[in-house]
Design goal:
Length: 166
C-alpha cells in the first residue's frame, strides 16, 4: 500500500527532471556537432533515421530556390551545400509528382524504392562528405512516366550520388 504513494513523496525538482523543455531539446540538438561525425559508428547499420530526413519547410523551399541539380534517367537530385542542425553529413527527401502518377499507391511505392536505395548506399557518400567537411540538403525527384524497377532506381540513385561527388 505504501508503494502506491512513493511517487507523490518525491521532491518536486526530481519529478521535473524527467521532462525536457523545448529549449533543452534545441540546445541538445545544437550540441550534436557535425565535426564529430564518424562513419565507423554507422558501419553495419543501414538505417534512415528521423535526423537524416529532410523535413524543414524553410530548408526545402531554399533548396528548390537556390539549389543545384543533377539528372540521370528520369531521376533528379536537387542539392544545396548548407550547414544543418544534425550530426549527419546529409539530410534527404524524396518526391514523386502527382502529375505523373495519379494514384498515391504508385507515388508511395516509388518513394519507398528510392528511400531503400539511398539507405543501403549512403555510407560511402557520407564518408566522402565527412572527409570534405560538407553538409548537404538533398531532394530526390522522380520525373519518369512509368513505374521503375528496383534495380533501375538503385543504379540511378548511385549515379546521382557519384556525379554529385565528382
Amino acid at each position: 500500500m505504501e508503494e502506491k504513494f512513493l511517487h507523490a513523496e518525491e521532491p518536486e525538482a526530481e519529478r521535473n527532471l524527467r521532462f525536457q523543455t523545448r529549449s533543452d531539446l534545441n540546445s541538445t540538438s545544437a550540441a550534436k556537432s557535425f565535426a564529430g561525425f564518424d562513419s565507423a559508428q554507422l558501419q553495419g547499420k543501414f538505417t534512415f533515421t528521423a535526423e537524416e530526413k529532410l523535413k524543414s519547410k524553410k530548408l526545402i523551399e531554399q533548396l528548390f530556390k537556390e539549389g543545384k541539380s543533377v539528372s540521370i534517367n528520369g531521376f533528379t537530385l536537387v542539392y544545396l551545400v548548407q550547414p544543418l542542425r544534425t550530426f549527419y553529413p546529409a539530410q534527404a527527401g524524396f518526391s514523386v509528382p502527382k502529375r505523373n502518377f495519379k494514384h498515391a499507391v504508385d507515388r508511395n511505392r516509388i518513394k519507398r524504392l528510392m528511400r531503400e536505395a539511398y539507405r543501403l548506399n549512403k555510407l560511402l557518400f557520407y564518408e566522402k562528405l565527412a572527409g570534405q567537411q560538407k553538409q548537404l540538403a538533398l531532394m530526390f525527384v522522380y520525373k519518369g512516366k512509368a513505374l521503375p524497377k528496383y534495380e533501375a532506381v538503385t543504379k540511378a540513385i548511385l549515379a546521382c550520388l557519384n556525379k554529385l561527388n565528382a
